[in-house]
Give the backbone structure.
Amino acid sequence: MTVCLDTNDPSNNWAYCPSLGAAILFTILFFVATFTHIVLAIKYKKRFCWVIITASIWETVGFGLRAASTQNETSSGLYTPMFLLILLAPIWINAFVYMILGRMILFFLPDRKALGVKASRLTLCFVLLDVTAFLVQAAGGSMITSTDPSTIQDGLHVYMAGVGVQEGFVLLFSILAARFHIKVRQIETGRSTHWKGMLYVVYATLTLITIRIIYRLIEYSKGVNSPAPTHEVYFYVFDALPMLTAITILCIWHPGSVLIGTESEFPKKTRAQKKEEKIQRKEEKRQKKIEKANGVSTGGTRLNILGKHRGVFNV
């Protein structure tokens, strides 16, 4: 039986007595999900699945460290990486969902656009926005692990801002998903109708992420000593379980079973094509410089001729 330190002990990293059994259980479950995603990524040959695999690995390692930390509550070397991995892993899930919908737009819509924007640009845009939210949350999360109360409070504000920004992007993305839903129903793509099931998985994952975000906002809205941060059950119900569910349903309804063939992936340019485009861009720049120089030269000649005419008239 685990004997926990007093939560008022300054050397104790925990605000409650953490459960070893729960941490071990979720470590095993996330490990199984990670292994399954690796197998499915190989089976369906979907390289972009490294994103969800990263999320699963972070959760697995995070909960493994959590289990170890329950046996050594004063070790910051265990607690800090555990805290950050579990805190930031869901952003990878978020990015994976963005990538899935981008490829669905590419695969199922003839014009490969949504809201008038190309699928590749939409995907890149939302992934970059997700990276921004990640960096803000990482900065805030690292500050929260400090021992200085002032730094912790500042970290909470930064982290909550990052989470709020993430949810704003999720809501914006949900509008995009709804637009895709309406558009794809109005046309006959001649391809598998399994898009509907995959889109519902996207909706479900976004909902689970939102539940987790709302929990995190409530958790620190009243500081580190409010009920949510001091009771472990809230963490497992509103953070760990929703993220495990999200990763699991993406195993059961894997995008590789719907997005089939080369047309479901963004085309990759060969090294020769990239080199050719680079040469072409240089040539275009050179032509523009020549045209600009000729324009200045022509303009100067015209001014000289005009000046001569004016001189004649003045005489």
Summary: The beta strands are 113-114, 117-118. DSSP finds eight helices and two strands in the chain.
